[in-house]
Specification:
There is one protein chain. A hairpin with a 7-residue loop joins strand 9 and strand 10. The chain is built from 14 helices and 13 strands. The chain folds into two domains: about 240 residues, Type I PLP-dependent aspartate aminotransferase-like (Major domain) (Aspartate Aminotransferase, domain 2); about 90 residues, Aspartate Aminotransferase, domain 1. The protein is of the alpha/beta class. The mean pLDDT is about 95. A seven-stranded mixed sheet has the order 2-8-7-6-5-3-4, with helices on both faces. A four-stranded antiparallel sheet has the order 9-10-13-12, covered by helices on one side. The longest helix has 15 residues. Bound molecules: ligand TLP. The site of ligand TLP has 15 residues, from helix 3.
Length: about 350
């Protein structure tokens, strides 16, 4: 199967499995796992933050950040299609007791003036604004890179109002590789960052959250409260180190293949590519094909291809390190067969 449902489907390489087997471990709740400590140090340094923490998933990292930054009854500003709003089962409201204020974005980017206008004043009827969240790359916007200039303007506003900024950087390294801007340049306009090791970077498990020492001190406690304090977690952190040290470069290939796929599909009748393909995500509107999303996905599956749904009539492809150039050619051919069987 050519699995393009997500970059979460990547499997650990042999080198990762070997590193897991050989990992030096200790009890990480006591702070004694040398492999976890090493991963956290590398991550903090790469992001230019004081400290970092290994967490089980992107969702857990985002939730911990919200719990550290916010008090119940506050409001959190984010883009209307942010993963934190649409795909985390309302966890911020359920756990941190906050409400979400969404702003329509342009390719995933919130307008700084809209952010400033959304910040609440002292009116006793209103909640306080407790946090601003940015997502980069932006998943629902098709892996769009939010430019650091946009983040900088929002950060300046946040500081004027004394509100922290959290970055859901599940795919921050994709943003960095596509723009050739170091991750530090994005991270510097934030108070906390979450990025995933288990997506395009290819590790089997885990995310990192990073920020000031004080933020991570509090985050460590929240992680424990949520049951995320792991013991000999070095076996999970070891592939994370390889992900950071060796797999960032491979994202270039993922992006190249995504662009090739988009080029190959763009003139096929019955589909429309919805996004400017900047990174590893392609969104395809199949409305004109007169097929239901379910039928479309089933027919692709018959050709050995897995894709995901991403809203009504939209299917998503995500290139990842299990995909080759040959696979891309097969996908293009399969589309032609599904849409114009008589031509093949
Ligand atoms: N995204 C997954 C699905 O949940 C949609 C995917 O396949 O893209 N932030 C962003 C921007 C994400 O895309 C995701 C996962 C997360 C957070 C959550 O990460 P995990 O799955 O590790 O909890």
């Amino acid at each position: 199967m050519i699995d393009l449902r997500s970059d979460t489907v990547t499997k650990p390489s042999e080198k990762m499995r070997k590193a897991m087997y050989e990992a030096e471990v200790g009890d990480d709740v006591y702070g004694e796992d040398p492999t976890v400590n090493k991963l956290e140090e590398i991550a903090a340094q790469t992001l230019g933050k004081e400290d970092a923490l290994f967490v089980t998933s992107g969702t857990q990292g985002n939730q911990i950040a919200g719990l550290v930054h916010c008090k119940p009854g506050q409001e959190v500003i984010m883009e209307a299609q942010a993963h934190l709003f649409v795909s985390e089962a309302a966890a911020l409201s359920a756990f941190a007791g906050v409400q979400i204020k969404t702003l329509a974005g342009d390719h995933g980017a919130m307008k700084p003036s809209d952010v400033e206008a959304a910040i609440r004043g002292d009116d006793i009827h209103e909640p306080e604004t407790g946090l601003i969240c940015i997502e980069n790359t932006h998943n629902k916007a098709g892996g769009a890179v939010i430019p650091p200039e946009n983040m900088e303007l929002i950060y300046q506003i946040s500081k004027r109002h004394d509100i922290p900024v959290h970055l859901d950087g599940a795919r921050l390294f994709n943003a960095s590789v596509a723009s050739q801007i170091p991750v530090k340049e994005f991270a510097k306009y934030t108070d906390s960052v979450q990025f995933c090791l288990s997506k395009g970077l290819g590790a089997p498990v885990g995310s990192i959250i990073a920020g000031s020492s004080d933020f991570i001190f509090k985050a460590r406690k929240w992680r424990k409260r949520l049951g995320g304090g792991l013991r000999q977690a070095g076996v999970l952190a070891a592939p994370g180190i390889i992900a950071l040290e060796e797999n960032v470069k491979h994202l270039e290939k993922d992006h190249e293949y995504a662009k090739q796929l988009a080029e190959g599909l763009q003139n096929i009748e019955g589909i429309v590519i919805k996004n400017k393909v900047e990174t590893n995500i392609i969104l395809i509107d199949i409305t004109k094909s007169n097929k239901t999303t379910e039928d479309f996905l089933n027919q692709l599956k018959e050709h050995g291809i897995l894709a995901g749904t991403f809203g009504p009539n939209i299917i998503r492809f995500v290139t990842n390190n299990g995909i080759t150039k040959k696979d891309i050619d097969k996908v293009i051919l399969a589309f032609q067969k599904v849409l114009s069987p008589s031509l093949i």
